[in-house]
Input
Amino acid sequence: MVTPLRIGILYSTQGPYGAMGRDCHDGAALAIEHLAAAGIAVEPVYADPGGEGPRYVTLARELLRERGCRHIVGTILSAGRKDVIPLVEKHDGLLWYVCPYEGFEANESVIYTGACPNQHLLPLFEYLIPRHGGRAFLLGANYVWGWEMNRLARELLLAGGGEVVGERFLPIDETEIERLVAEIEAQRPSFILNNLIGPSSYAFLAAMSRLAARDPAFRPEVCPVVSCDLTECELGEIEPGVAVGQLAAACYFDSLDTAENRAFKADIAARWGRERRASTFFAAAHAAVDLCARAIVAAGTDEPGAVRQALLGRPHATVQGTIRIDPRTNHAALPFHLGRINAEGGFDIVASRPAIAADPYLTGLRDGRARPHLRVVS
Output
């Protein structure tokens, strides 16, 4: 086996979702430092699309064809992942995808270490609806994440006796949301599912804070805005204080109180300063690089088939907890946490579940027995 191990790191650190890309980039970089300390040399090959979606394909092609990478840890949005997968398949590579996504995918050329809907949306609704009611307003970024998440939310709500009182989609960089907020004010939902991305999400949260200031019915404790993709790395992009009290689901929060996370945060502080918070993007990218490198070493080759065999079904210690990659779906079993944004720019964890086996197609099958996924209210 050639050493050091060569792994492509493909994240956009600029543009409307640059905060997420920077956290993924830095999580990968810290994993490489940790691996070096453990005697595993990794040569990262960094590629940055600069916020331009089509460049993911161009740069992935360069990594696979010209720069000697058979493994790529990267892409943020589902559009980028779906564009890159055919190249990875063609060149017999393996893509390591670390972001929460909308599910309904399982590809032998992808290892999924980000959460799918039965690991974020379903437990979120199971917590939320009994406490706030089932009248929801659905917001989505105008691409596959927003479309599919809102479709699933509608099915879940209808199956549980709830109601969708409104649904709207916005481009990632759209910040004119006054008419949208006026519609929400008129419909008076019991909660708002926010599947917006980047600047549109940040502008919406600020506008909802202004609405809550003039109408207490929209204060977070009464009508929360809930997200499955809002993390610590983005809170600095939002107008200070306006998102306090809102809720987000994730498989990791910086405030997680475990010995492993305390050690992890100490390493982050030594590298970037005590003010730096880690997000689920940071933690998942760290885990993916670590899993990839150790599986290559265990396999004795970077050939994707052998690496998968060395990886799948075995327990792997990560800062998120011990996870396993399901041999049937290539997805990680992941814990669920629900966080409430606090005034210090982080999340207070208000609910948690241990690792949930991924069910990307929502089949509801466990150990041969069907368990309905679409009933969220008992």
Q: What stands out?
A: The radius of gyration is 20 Å. Residues 182 and 193 are 16 Å apart (CA to CA). The chain has two domains: 5-115+257-334, 118-255+337-370. The chain has a mean pLDDT of 94.
